[in-house]
Design a protein that fits this description.
mainly alpha
Length: 90
Amino acid sequence: MDYVWIAIVGLCAAAIAKLVLPGRNGPRGVIGTTLVGVAGSFVGSFLGQFFGFYRPGEAAGFLGSIVGAIVILLIWDRLFKEKTPPAAAK
């Protein structure tokens, strides 16, 4: 039952992160969004522990998961951004 709860929280966190960031970002679909949210929870936990918001071994809360998902979506956007060809010189 814990895994179901993790998936639900991950889906909600990634959905909110996608609403915060404009444009087309991240993987599409429910499964991709859920995976971004779950990974965002891990990133949020790591960043929270690094900056002293969480104790070692403590998991990120809902806001930490959203911040982690935003970080992942920003990295995703940088890595997979569509390249536009340069404008033709006149």
